[in-house]
């Protein structure tokens, strides 16, 4: 019975295949194989033997050499060989393979488990001969479409290759232009260096007489400044002596705490009396001060408050019945001390005192509220009236007084001429020096491009200076070859640097298929960002996709003619082979 089943299966297979060299093939066996292993040397990569091994006139030897069986056992739906080679047309062996001839389209090899499983795997329907899958032979239609698609891709590949040749030509041209430009810039830089040296010498020559002429002005300015400082110091010490005499009630040459506490001027917290702490503060934490120590340590602390108090006090009018006592002066606010310059000029000090005085007056109660007539004894400054008077003066005169007065020349005529000559020499030197620096920067930039790897034939050089964008739902990505890769949100501002140009990272033999951009901005609590650019053949330089397979690691898909190789000839041999299978 087993022999009859095997014979019927073989006959069914033999009736559906062509004869090649008068050799019949069981179902699932290819006409030939690509592998070079001989009979008994093991299975080929497809797992199938040549048709000549399946000779119905003799016993079948398992292709792995493990044994032999009667030929009637081939395709009998029972696995006899360990390598499954006796069941190429059934699903009996788990490690077997089934060959789809697919006449008119590409042949296909399947695991034997997919034979008669109800799924149409072979376009010629040969894998479902015993099932009810109702598969149709669509190989000719699929083959025609596949050949048309292959022809289209081949044309695109050929166009990309032609564009690559143009990129190579353009790259070599740019390299030669850069070489010529470098030579030109080197000559210009040599000339510019010579000019700068000349201008530097002229500047030194012009600055020598200027320096001598200005020395007398510097000496005069120093002497004038020293004189002004001496006058200011003398005035300062005179004020200190006058204040000391005023505060030293018993004229014993010592300023004591009791004398300080008797002066309402030093009631800094405005509680109605001068405490020991307040008195000691102005005495620089001493019990008493002599005139010398008062000038050096006490007066710098007292001066702002004392002078403001003196400015606020005016003698009573003649209509007043009794003048208010000196000690009942208005209480000043807490002092603000400037210890950087104890000899502050009157104008500078007056400005601070006026501000403090205005704040103090604003904080005092109105005369009508407390019923006191003391406020009448003080002249309240009318700022509005002063401002109004100033405005009227400016309106009456066409030009302010400051503008009417011509600025006096800073130097005499001869000195000014020397300064002008030196300034002109400095300007010429600065211009020459700037020219040298500009040429040096441009030269360095060009020299860097000459050592950069733009591909084996300079095919990638034309990408330098260009940028390519790709936008998805959230971000716009930008790739600037040999520069950087960035990410920018569509709704928002700011740009994130994903990496700077690093190196070519393709595998050996295909080095220029990938670019690595590293040392981007660091992710929060993570590594620095990087971008791996995969380059494939295309008819244009275009960024076609971006993904982030790992955190902070981006993959850019970029097409370029630069990686397109010369396409193979039309595969006529494969077409002939297909027709032979028919």
Automatic annotation (TrEMBL):
Composition skew (Acidic residues), residue ranges: 337-411
Signal sequence bounds: 1-20
PROSITE patterns: EF_HAND_1, MRH
Annotated coiled-coil segments of the chain: 422-449
Cellular-component GO terms for this entry: glucosidase II complex
Region (Disordered): 169-237, 310-418
Identification of the protein by name: Glucosidase 2 subunit beta
Protein's gene: PRKCSH_2
